[in-house]
Amino acid sequence: MEGKYAGITGHIPSLEDHGYLYMYYGLPHSDDCYVYGDGEDNEYLIQSYEGDDFCRRVAETFEYEYKWLDVLDEHNIELSRIFDVDVESLDLDVTASLLLYLVTSITYEDIFIDAIENGYLLRLVKRLQHWN
After folding, report:
1. What is the number of helices (H) and of strands (E) in the chain?
2. Average of pLDDT values for 30-36?
3. Each residue of 62-117: pLDDT tens digit?
4. How many C-alpha atoms does 81 have within 13 Å on its Cβ side?
5. Residue 45, Cα to own-chain centre: how many angstroms?
6. 0.85 exceeded by the pTM?
7. For residues 81 and 53, what is the distance between their CA atoms, to the nearest angstrom?
């Protein structure tokens, strides 16, 4: 039986293998992606269909249950220091809120890409697996 968060944690193998292709700047590596930007210096913002699916599943699962900013404030987590937070000890509310923050951040900053590149996103999704 699939767990409640299987739609998100099901992305773990692909995040481990090619998560860096979920979203990045550059040229598309395949046709299975959305391409944004004017192409100046061949620096398009690329989001794979798989990365888009991941973000939609996070939003659909949590966005109506969690006011992520309030949860992070209540736990004294500063957005500028989220990479310093010990992911492996987070409770479900904080894990969900950080995932929502990362998904929301796509529209206004590159922290989602940073979270992919430094392994933070994968660690959060693996933590979510704990409650699956």
Report:
1. 7, 3
2. 92
3. 988 889 999 999 999 999 999 999 999 999 999 999 999 999 998 777 899 999 99
4. 9
5. 16
6. yes
7. 27
Label residue 48 exposed, middle or buried (CB < 10 Å: 0-12, 13-18, 19+).
buried
Structure tokens at 22: 């979920």
Q: Which of 48, 45, 46, 67 is closest to 56 using CA atoms?
A: 48
Question: Which residue do the tokens 């949860």 mark?
Answer: 71
Output the six-digit token pair for 93.
Answer: 């509310």
End-to-end CA distance of the chain: 10
| Amino acid found at 16 | E
Q: What whole-number distance in Å separates Cα of residue 9 and Cα of residue 87?
A: 15
Closest Cα to residue 130, out of 82, 83, 88, 102?
A: 88
